[in-house]
Amino acid sequence: MSWRVELDKGWHNSAWAVTIVFAVGSWIGRVGPRPAGGQSSLSSSRERLETVRQVLAEVPLIDGHNDLPWNIRNFVHNQLAEFEFDTDLRQVVPWSKSAWSQTDLLRLRQGMVGGQFWAAYVPCESQHLNAVQLTLEQVDLIKRLIEKYSQHMQFAASSREILEAHGNGRIASLIGVEGGHSLGSSLAVLRTLYQLGVRYLTLTHTCNTPWAKSSSVEQGDGESGGGLTHFGRSVVREMNRLGMLIDLSHTARATMRDALGVSKAPLIFSHSSAFAICNSTRNVPDDILKQLAANGGLVMVTFYNYFVKCGPQATVSDVAEHIYYVRNLIGVDHIGVGGDFDGINKTPRGLEDVSRYPELFAELLRSGKWNVLDLKKVAGLNLLRVLRKVESVRDDMRTAGVMPAEEFLDSPDTTGSCALDINAVQRVMEV
Ligand SMILES: *[C@@H]1O[C@H](CO)[C@@H](O)[C@H](O)[C@H]1NC(C)=O
After folding, report:
1. What CA–CA distance (Å, rounded) separates 280 from 249?
2. What does the pLDDT look like over 136-150, one tens digit per residue?
3. Where are the domains of the chain?
């Protein structure tokens, strides 16, 4: 669709103040290049995009997972002085040369992203080594990024703050820690991360932790025993008490089941799709989806071609198929989006980068079975509902006087050869 390409070009050349973002719907109608032919179908596709833009102006589009912070570490070693987020990174080396780069402020605005969970991800190979320090550095990086671009981004740590940021025309920026290895098997570290503003923890990445099993150890339909240990269940309960979202993407099915069984609050998958359509262990099987819905939770459908189509090629329609499937199975109240941009190197045609979200919502409208309220739910209302519930469970537990858990785990993080034997030090000091 060449008119669309021209539109994009015109957009990049124009100033991109928020007012223009909100004005773009009518702008398309007035001065946008005319389609060459097929006026009626193209004009209705234009109408759909206009409807989507109105929806996303009213309700923040909240994406569950973006790995930009890790790329900033990889590419510029967290030197934000060398990072210009408000330029077109498709023109800047090394971003322009990387298949893993799909995010900059220009394109986030163009895609009308209203809220983003930024991943404080560190590779789980750092488990039992410097995972906790690296995670703190990524949390610091995300906060500095928000501060540097405070005209466009606003830190958010609650459902209310997401709406405030959106009302200010800024991208509500939340922090999610991707992997339980970042806790160093310590509930004290979990609590400290919460105090720093972290609002979800993915229970595992691709490594098992001493207390939770990862999906990467699963093969075929094979069930692989217990998911969460006793300590793992304490992590989930402590997250309920703190008011932190529990993210089950990357976990083994047994972990999903155990967490769903323990948690008093709804859970999320921040970036996973439907296993019934593509049988990757990163996707969610039907029985888990049903349990997720029964708990009031949310699957934020992800865009990586290998999770959408189980292969290197996919399209925006294929992503929509996952959304239709989940809707048919558990209803529209349990769907969100978690693109995983900047964490993937193969994106669907039509969803190449963060500027493309409106195309996905327009695709849902095209089916003829989606109304404006449905779109709002998938864009952000569902996530806001889940977060509000997590916050109210926290408040209830506080009212009930539930105290911080003091359970600890003897793990390589606290007992390994690199760990300081703190009890021995105390004995020396007493002498
Ligand atoms: C997915 O399906 C293929 C083909 O039936 C099978 O070989 C593979 O083991 C399955 N993978 C999983 C994770 O179920």
Report:
1. 12
2. 999 999 999 999 999
3. 3-430
Question: Alpha helix locations (H) across 14-130?
Answer: 18-31, 39-58, 68-76, 105-110
Percent of the chain with pLDDT over 70: 86
Complete DSSP assignment for 291-355: HHHHTT-EEEE---HHHHTSSS--BHHHHHHHHHHHHHHH-GGGEEE---BTS-S---BT-SSGG
**Residue 279 CB less than 6 A away from ligand 1:** yes
What fold is seen in the domain 3-430? TIM Barrel (3.20.20)
Residue 428 has a pLDDT of 61
Does the pTM surpass 0.85? The reply is yes
Catalytic annotation present for 58: no
If pLDDT is split at 50, 70 and 90, which confidence band does 411 have? Answer: confident
Q: For residue 219, which atom of ligand 1 is closest to its CA?
A: 13
| Ligand 1 and 281: CB distance under 6 A | yes
At 163-176, the pLDDT tens digits run: 999 999 999 999 99
Q: How far is CA 78 from CA 68, 70, 144, 221, 280, in A?
A: 11, 9, 10, 40, 32
221 lines ligand 1 (CB under 6 A): yes
Atom of ligand 1 lying closest to residue 218 CA: 13
Which residue(s) pair with 336 in the sheet? 300
Is residue 152 part of the annotated active site? The answer reads no
CA distances to 89, 105, 429 from 343, in Å: 16, 17, 47
Cα(245)–Cα(268) distance, integer angstroms: 7
pLDDT beyond 90 at 259? yes
In the residue annotation, 407 being an active-site residue is answered as no
